[in-house]
Every structure is written in structure tokens, then in C-alpha cells.
Amino acid sequence: MAKYVFVTGGVTSSLGKGIIAASLAKLLQARGFSVTIQKFDPYINVDPGTLNPYEHGECYVTEDGAETDLDLGHYERFLNIHTSQANNVTTGRIYQTVINKEREGAYLGKTVQVVPHITDEIKRRMLLLGRGGEYDIVITEIGGTIGDIESLPFVEAIRQIQWELPDEDVCVIHLTLIPYLRAAKELKTKPTQHSVKMMSETGVHPDIIVCRTEEPLTNDLKRKIALFCNVKQNAVIEAMDASSIYEVPLEMLREKLDVICLNKFGITDFKEPNLDKWKAFLDKIKYPKSKITIGLIGKYIELQDAYKSILESFIHAGAMNEVKVVVQNIHSEFITPENVAEKLQNVDGMLVAPGFGERGIEGKILAIKYARENNIPFFGICLGMQMSVIEFARNVLNIKDAHSTEMNKNTPNPVVNMMEEQKKVKLMGGTMRLGSYPCEIKEGSLAEKIYRTTHISERHRHRYEFNNDYLEQFEANGMKATGFNPDTGLVEIVEVPAHPFFIGVQYHPELKSTVENPAPLFVDFIAAAKVFNEKRTAQKKEVGVV
Ligand code: GLN
After folding, report:
1. What angle do CA 127, 128, 134 make, to 5 degrees?
2. pTM higher than 0.70, yes or no?
3. Which of 208, 299, 418, 465 could bond to 360 as cystine, CB 3.0-4.6 Å?
4. CA distance 140 to 40
5. Is-contact 127 4, C-beta < 8 A?
6. Quick check: is 261 catalytic?
7. pLDDT per position as a tens digit, 175-187
8. Which residues pair with 73 in a beta bridge?
């Protein structure tokens, strides 16, 4: 029987519940426990796949093709494990299950209600991952903030689980904010007291309170929070703002979050955590040997969460190369033929981001042309790869009206086309080509050099593809397809071998990059950018600029 940790949030959103949950999981894993994390989100969408990145940040895709919350990305990056559809549940999915059962007649004769039918389904899913014997500890993060109307059924489910299971099987952690009032030069505990009181009114009382704070919590303050929130003083944990999310597990180790949690479970026999690899990684990000600049070209750059996994992959790959990767956000919508050179003058490499729809694509195409012609390392992901294909068709193959049917349904030259299986799809949710697919890599290609193998599998999320009718023409003129799906022949990787580093991939390698296993494509892209930077610095020195 697994033990269950629930993580709730109070006072305000965006406190970093996902990072605290992932950090606790990392520590427990480092002590030898088998841990998984799941996220319960209180919105009505069945999954975040239909949400705009501005609304919800990146949509994280798992191996089994689930479109999930970006916190699952943190879980995978911290723990180096795979999550799945079962690890992310929304209110929409709960209701969908209950309503489908109602239509099948499962509740025949009964009035179907929030309590007990919705709460029973929530409980079933909360306990599900702990039932298979695979995990010692299941951590469940509850999205939203205590006091929100929509998270009430989740809190009620936790209350019932707390009542049904032995005391030592459940631990509730409440993450809250202790604001610092500059004028009064004081940390304020009242919002936390109110938040815990509100949660207690619903029948759930926290065992541990984790306090996000800009200033250190004194012992007096910890005592005050403990006294008025009715928890033990050592169960009030300070979570200071950290310079990197990867510091947080060590911060939580210092505060003994994992030990207090294990004590609640009545577990006293555990080993010292083995965090050697983690610490080595942290050293590398703290003390880089040099610095490079990568241009991230996309249309959602105002919102950093939209490209979360890409940004984290840069950190992992930077550590491997012992460089600091400075990301220069370049809005694709504002790139013009006149300003492209100026906008890209300082970048050592360019990543053209994934995306959907027309906005900003001409800017992406201009940037890719510039990178191709000026030997700047180029890495295109999904839409970024598709745009590199269109750029090559227009400017090298001289097919001026080449396009993707996503942007122009009636283009005479659809070099990027809707996949056959997608043409009959009517529903929008969960119907893209999703999840992990195998890819065969051509020997002697850049991709083979990067992956050091010819068989890989990577995760996908798209409806359009490279149009194989044009393949011969591309290959004859210098753009090679070097990765294929073995079952369908879909092109998954394109390269320009005459260029020092030009690669576009139809899949999302950023989704599989973890602290322990950085994505090879990112590692080699950053290495290529490092070489570009060194060459440029040497050239500048030669002409006396630096
Ligand atoms: N919009 C493109 C497609 O559906 C690319 C998707 C993406 O970048 N994830 O094929």
C-alpha cells in the first residue's frame, strides 16, 4: 500500500507548487523510495491540449500521448521518470467519466451528484497510481488556490481519503505566501493563517506548511505560524526565492521537508539521499566557463511558460557544455527583411519554436534564411522544422508559392501537408499525432552523429508533415531527410549537410530532456553555438574589434 502526499496552495497562485512537489519527490527518490507525482487541475477542459499557451503555458506531451499540464514536465525533468495520462486529471475528465457512466446506466435509479459521485471518481483517480504496488509514495498536486469554488470537490476528496486511510498513510502539505511589507519592514503571516483556517473549515488540516518568502523566517515567526495554524514548529518550512528551480530540492533538504514527511508516515528507516549527480549538475550551472547567446524565435515569447521545456533543455545542455546559455527572445511577428540582420547580429545559434497558425511565420522564414545563408547554427522544432522546409523550397528550389496547407489550404505547392490520417479528424481535442513514435536515422547523417544510434523514439504533437512528393527535389538541392518513421515513411528530420549545423525535427526533443539525460539534440546544438561563438570572437580579435 502506497503512502499519499497532497500538496495544496494558499493565498495566491503561481507559488510554485509544482517545483515544491517535484523537489520533495526528488529527495524521497534520492533516499531510495519509488515515487510518482500527479496533478489534479480544477478546470473544465478535458485536458490542456485545447488551451492557448497564453492561457496555460506549454502543453506537455507524455510518452503515451497525453496532452498535460507543464508541471508534469518538471516532474519528469527532476525525477528522470516517465509520466502518463493517469498523472494529470482535470475536472473536465472527471465529469466526462461520470457523465459517460450515467449514460451507460451505471447509476440507474440514482440522482448523480457532486457528492458522492464526482468526489468518488476524484478519489478513485487520486488513489489509482498507488494501487499497483509500483510506488511507495504518490504525490498529488492540486491546481488552483484554496478558497476557489472549483477546487472544493478536490479538497473534499482529500478530506474523505484522510478519514478513510490510516493516519500514517496521508500527509497534507500547504504551500503559502508570507508577504514582506517593505514599508513596515515586516513579514506578514495573516494571509497564511486565513488560508489554513479556510482549508480547515472544509475539514482538511495541513501537516506541513511550506512558506514562500523573500526574507528569511525567524524562529519567532515560525513559532507564530505553527501556533496559529496548529502544526508542529518543525513542520513550518521556509522556502526562500531560489536562483534556480534546481536549487529547491537542496533547500528543502536543508529544511528537512522530506524527513518531516517521512516521520508523518511513521517511516524511520531511510538512508541519506544520494544527490551526487544533482549537485554536480548544479555546480555546472552555477560556474559556467563561458557564455553564449541563443535566439529563441517564436510568437509567444512574452510568456516564458509557453516554451518551458525548451528553456529547461537549454539549461541541461548548457551544463553539459559548461556554458551559460543566454536566451534572447525574438518575436517572430516583428522580424522584417530590413531588420532581420540587426535582430540576429548577436546570436550564436537560433532555435525556431513550435507553434500553430499563421501569425509570425513569415518572420520565422526570414530568420531561417538568414541562419542558413550565414552559417549560424539552426535548430527547428515542429513548426520550426516545417518553416525551414518552406524557406528552402522558396529560396533554394525557387518554388516561390511553397507553403503549408495549415496556413494556405489551396497552395499550389504544399511542401508541408496535412497527414492523411488527420484528414478525417473532426474533433479538436486529443486528435493530433501525439506521443512517442520510433524514428530511423540515416547512417552518416548529423542526426546519427548527435544521437550516436540509428534507432530513436521521440514525442510528437502535430497535424502536418513534410510532403514526400517533393523529397527528391529537396535532396537533389541540398536539404536531406535523415530521419523517417519506419511504419509510415513520414519525414521526421531534415538537415542541410553543407551548413555547419542545420537541423529541423518534426518531433519535440525538449519533452525528453532531463537533468540526468539532457536531450542530445540540445547538447550538440549548444556545442555548435559554442564553436560559432569562439570563431566569431577570434575573428573579431583578428580585426581588432575586441
Ligand atoms: N502547427 C503545426 C502542425 O500541426 C506544428 C505543430 C507544433 O509545432 N507543435 O503540424
Report:
1. 105
2. yes
3. 299
4. 7
5. yes
6. no
7. 999 999 999 999 9
8. none
